[in-house]
Specification:
By secondary structure, this protein is α/β, with parallel strands linked by helices. The chain has two domains: 9-106 and 253-276, Leucine Dehydrogenase, chain A, domain 1 (Rossmann fold); 109-243, NAD(P)-binding Rossmann-like Domain (Rossmann fold, 3-Layer(aba) Sandwich). The protein contains nine helices and twelve strands. The chain has helices at 23-34, 50-59, 84-89, 108-118, 135-146, 159-171, 230-237, 245-261, 267-276; strands spanning 9-15, 38-44, 64-67, 81-82, 94-98, 101-105, 127-131, 151-156, 175-180, 192-195, 218-221, 241-243. The strands form two sheets. Strands 2-1-3-5-6-4 form a six-stranded mixed beta sheet. Strands 9-8-7-10-11-12 form a six-stranded parallel beta sheet, sandwiched between helices. β11 (218-221), α7 and β12 form a beta-alpha-beta unit. The mean pLDDT is 95. Bound molecules: NADP nicotinamide-adenine-dinucleotide phosphate. NADP nicotinamide-adenine-dinucleotide phosphate binds next to α4, α5 and α8.
């Protein structure tokens, strides 16, 4: 007689829009690779309906879920326990459900750092330029603070948001200079330049000119669709060191997988599934 070693487990990603999420592909590939009796679904919860959405997830005894736009900040209200990664960033992207007790984590910070570490790029004592001051930028600032960067210049379209993020950076020990994105100059000062604006998603031009960078500059675009944004193309013209948005996406999914399953994630199988989804 066949016996099941594992009780079947269900996971989800919640957000709106959600139908183009690549997370179901990535996690399902990992389940197949490790022969886990698990499933992962995309569940659309519109803004304003988060409370009811979470109740229904609890009813079906969901084992864990990812959280994406627009719920990453509001979800904090519904957590019973909060990991440190979440409290520093003020947003949640991964939740575990242990018999109705919801614990929140933020794997965006480690996911962001993962490709930099894999490529052995030195962060300590380097100057960083960060474009954008939205939700993702908060996790990135926390990552650079953790890795003891020398300073971060936060350049945003809306100066007030750059100012607010700069206050957070200083609070967690990272020297920070807020500025408007169209006032950025002297790019050669920066070792790492990150695009954390949403510019590129609709094939827009690069948010800044990259003409003055060189082949030692690391250019990291967190926008992952399209893979080759105009920002990435301009960086390639300067022969810069490139990090793609999909690498962060993969990094955060790997961390979430390991929180839920307590085993090493099958990185290559997850990467193959993700790249196949483009
Ligand atoms: N690779 C990954 O794993 C990963 C993870 C998270 C997010 N992302 C991507 O990162 C991007 C940002 O996400 P988010 O959650 O931080 O979004 P968000 O909170 O909405 O922030 C959007 C940011 O983009 C800026 N922006 C928007 N349109 C702009 C324009 N036309 N010119 C200049 N700046 C503009 C905004 O500036 P204002 O403050 O002036 O509005 C803000 O700084 C999205 O494309 C998302 O898909 C990728």
């Amino acid at each position: 007689m066949l016996t099941r070693k594992n009780v079947s487990k269900t996971f989800a990603v919640i957000g709106d829009p959600i139908d183009h999420s690549l997370s179901p592909n990535i996690h399902s590939a990992a389940f197949r690779e490790l022969n886990l009796d698990c499933s992962y679904i995309a569940y659309r919860i519109p803004k304003g309906e988060l409370k009811e959405g979470i109740e229904s997830l609890k009813k079906i005894k969901i084992n864990g879920f990812n959280v994406t736009i627009p719920h990453k900040i509001e979800m904090m209200k519904y957590l019973d326990k909060i990991d440190e990664s979440c409290s520093i960033i003020g947003a949640v992207n991964t939740v575990t459900n242990n018999e109705g007790i919801l614990k929140g984590y933020n794997t965006d910070m480690e996911g962001f750092l993962d490709p930099l570490k894999k490529k052995k790029i030195k962060i300590q004592d380097t100057r960083i330029l960060l474009l954008g001051a939205g939700g993702a930028a908060r996790a990135i600032v926390a990552g650079f603070a953790k890795e003891k960067a020398k300073s971060i210049t936060i350049a945003n379209r809306t100066l007030e948001k750059a100012n607010n993020l700069s206050i957070l950076a200083k609070k967690i020990g990272l020297s920070s200079i807020p500025t408007e994105i169209n006032k950025i100059e002297n790019l050669e000062e920066f070792k790492i330049i990150v695009n954390a604006t949403s510019v590129g998603l609709k094939n827009e031009q690069s948010p800044i000119s990259l003409k003055s960078i060189n082949s030692n500059t690391v250019v990291y675009d967190i926008v992952y669709l399209p893979m080759n944004t105009n920002f990435i193309k301009k960086a390639k013209e300067q022969k810069a060191i490139i990090i793609y948005g999909y690498e962060m996406l993969l990094g955060q999914a790997v961390r979430a997988f390991e929180i839920w399953h307590g085993v090493e994630a099958p990185y290559n199988a997850m990467k193959k599934a993700l790249l196949g989804g483009f």
